[in-house]
Amino acid sequence: QVQLVESGGGLVQPGGSLRLSCTASLRAFRSYAMAWFRRAPGREREFVAATSSSGSSVYSADSLKGRFTISRDNDKVSVYLQMNSLKPEDTAVYYCAAALRVGYSDYDYNYWGQGTQVTVSS
Length: 122
Prior knowledge:
This protein is mainly β. It contains no helices and 11 strands.
C-alpha cells in the first residue's frame, strides 16, 4: 500500500510565496523519481517539476524556471515545491507523483497524492 500526501496549499496574494510538501509511505522511496503536476480550472493536468531518485537531477517546466524549485529529503521521505513570485495563473490543484524514472506525462507516474489547492488572488 502506497500513500502520498500533499500539504502546504492555501490562499496567497500575487507575488507571494508558498512551499508545498509531499510525504510518502512508499517503502522504496529512495528508488523513485518524484514529480509535481498541477491542474488549473479548465485546463489539463500540467507538468511542473521532477527530481531523480537521488535528487541530483531536477527538471522543471520552462515557464516556471526561476520561480518554482523542486527538492527532496530522502531521510524525511518527502519532496517539496518552493513557489515564489506567485501569479493568479498559478492557481491550481497541485499533485505529487512517484515513478521509477522521471517523465513529463502523468501517464509516466504510478502513484499519486490527492492534491492540495493553491489559490493566488488579491
